[in-house]
Automatic annotation (TrEMBL):
<keyword id="KW-0040">ANK repeat</keyword>
<protein>
    <submittedName>
        <fullName>Ankyrin repeats (3 copies)</fullName>
    </submittedName>
</protein>
<dbReference type="Pfam" id="PF12796">
    <property type="entry name" value="Ank_2"/>
</dbReference>
<dbReference type="InterPro" id="IPR002110">
    <property type="entry name" value="Ankyrin_rpt"/>
</dbReference>
<feature type="repeat" description="ANK">
    <location>
        <begin position="116"/>
        <end position="148"/>
    </location>
</feature>
<dbReference type="InterPro" id="IPR036770">
    <property type="entry name" value="Ankyrin_rpt-contain_sf"/>
</dbReference>
C-alpha cells in the first residue's frame, strides 16, 4: 500500500470533514485504515496528532474505535513513540487523552518505552500533567521503570525548565506559546501561515498586543496549489518580501514550475485587512497570558502532591501487612 500522503482520496484530509454516515461509507469503500502510514515511519494517527488535528482523531476514535491499534508506534525517525506517549506529550489536548485511555484501558501497554527509554508516565511528570500521571498510575503504570539515563518517572519532579522545553520541542511545541493558542505561529484570518518582519512569530499575549497596536498591511505572497504547497501571507516589509520570494523560488524549483505561478505579491483587499484585525481582537480575549512552559512548571506542584499521596498509600499498605 502506498503512503497515504500520495493517495488522492486521502492526501487532502477533506474526507475527515464528511458527516458521520458519509465518512463511514468513505472509510469502507476506500479501505481506509487509521493504522496505515501517512509517510515513512509516520502513521496516520501520529501525523494527525503531531499537527494538532485533535478533532479528526476524536472522530475516528468515536466512529471506528475497533479499527484503531491503541499501541501503534511511529518509526525510528520520530522516536518510536506510542499513541499514548504522543498524546501525553501534546499539552494542548486534555479531553482526548482521557477518552483514549478510557476506551483502551485494558489494552494499553502502559510501560512501553520509546527510543529514549521513557514511558508515558515519565513525560506526564516532566510536563507537569498531574491528572494524566495519576490516571496512568491508577491504570497500572509502573513508577519503577528507568529511562536510558537511569531516571525513574518521579526523578523528573521539579526538573529544570530546559528539560521541559526540550521535551516540548520533541513534538514541535513552542514552549513560549500561549496555552490557549491553537498552533505555534500566528496565522491570518483564513488560517493561512503568516510571516511578519521576516519571521514566523510565536503566538503569545505580548506579541499579540504589539500586532494590535501596529498598522499591519497584509500581502498574499505565495499562491497555494493543493495538495503541493499552501498559500502564504505576510506583512509588507522588505524582510518578509525577501524571505517569501526566496521560499517561492524553492517551491518553483522543486515542482518545476515558473516563479510567477507561485509568487504573486498581491496586497489583500480591505475586507480581508479588517477581518484579520477582528481576529486579533478575538485572540486577545481568548489568550490566557500564560505560556505552555509556565503551565508545565506550575504543574509540578500537583505532581509533588501526587507523590506525597502515593507515599502515604504505600506506608498504609506496609502497616496493614
Amino acid at each position: 500500500m502506498p503512503f497515504y500522503y500520495s493517495v488522492s482520496q486521502f492526501n487532502s484530509l477533506d474526507f475527515l470533514d464528511l458527516p458521520d454516515k458519509e465518512l463511514l461509507t468513505f472509510i469502507r469503500l476506500n479501505n481506509f485504515s487509521p493504522n496505515a502510514d501517512w509517510a515513512e515511519d509516520n502513521p496516520v494517527l501520529h501525523y494527525l496528532l503531531a499537527n494538532e488535528l485533535f478533532d479528526y482523531v476524536a472522530r475516528l476514535l468515536t466512529l471506528i474505535p475497533e479499527r484503531i491499534n491503541p499501541n501503534l508506534c511511529d518509526g525510528a525517525e520520530f522516536g518510536k513513540k506510542s499513541l499514548l506517549i504522543l498524546l501525553t506529550l501534546l499539552p494542548s489536548n486534555d479531553s482526548l487523552i482521557f477518552k483514549f485511555m478510557e476506551r483502551y484501558q485494558n489494552q494499553l501497554l502502559l510501560d512501553y518505552q520509546d527510543e529514549n527509554g521513557k514511558t508515558a508516565l515519565h513525560y506526564a511528570i516532566i510536563l507537569g500533567r498531574a491528572d494524566i500521571a495519576e490516571r496512568l498510575i491508577t491504570l497500572g503504570a509502573s513508577i519503577e521503570v528507568s529511562d536510558n539515563e537511569g531516571f525513574l518517572p518521579f526523578d523528573y519532579l521539579y526538573c529544570p525548565g530546559e528539560v521541559i522545553s526540550t521535551t516540548l520541542k520533541m513534538v514541535d511545541i513552542e514552549p513560549l506559546r500561549d496555552t490557549n493558542a491553537a498552533s505555534n505561529q500566528f496565522e491570518d484570518h483564513a488560517d493561512r501561515p503568516m510571516m511578519l518582519q521576516g519571521m514566523y512569530l510565536i503566538q503569545c499575549k505580548e506579541t499579540l498586543k504589539n500586532l494590535i497596536k501596529g498598522n499591519l498591511v497584509l500581502v498574499k505572497y505565495i499562491e497555494g496549489k493543493s495538495p503541493y504547497w499552501g498559500t502564504f501571507i505576510g506583512d509588507d516589509c522588505p524582510l518578509t518580501y525577501g524571505e517569501m520570494r526566496e521560499f517561492a523560488q524553492k517551491i518553483a524549483s522543486n515542482y518545476k514550475c515558473s516563479l510567477s505561478e507561485v509568487f504573486v505579491n498581491q496586497k489583500l483587499g480591505s475586507d480581508e485587512q479588517v477581518a484579520f484585525r477582528t481576529k486579533l481582537k478575538e485572540l486577545s480575549n481568548d489568550f490566557s497570558g500564560q505560556s505552555i512552559i509556565q503551565k508545565c512548571s506550575q504543574g509540578h506542584d500537583k505532581i509533588a502532591k501526587l507523590l506525597h499521596k502515593l507515599r502515604n498509600e504505600m506506608k498504609q499498605t506496609v502497616t496493614l501487612t
